[in-house]
Amino acid sequence: MADVTFYTNPMSRGQIARWALHEAGAEYDQVLLDFGTSMKGDDYLAVNPMGKVPAIEHDGKVVTEAAAICGYLADAFPDAGLAPTDDERADYYRWMFFAAGPVESSVMLNHLGWKPTGEQEATVGYGTYDRVMDVLESAVSRADFICGDRFTMADVYVGSQVDWGINFGTMPKRDAFKAYAARMQERDAYKAAKEIDNALIAEQQAAEQG
Question: Looking at 81, 97, 123, which one is the last position of a domain?
Answer without folding.
Answer: 81
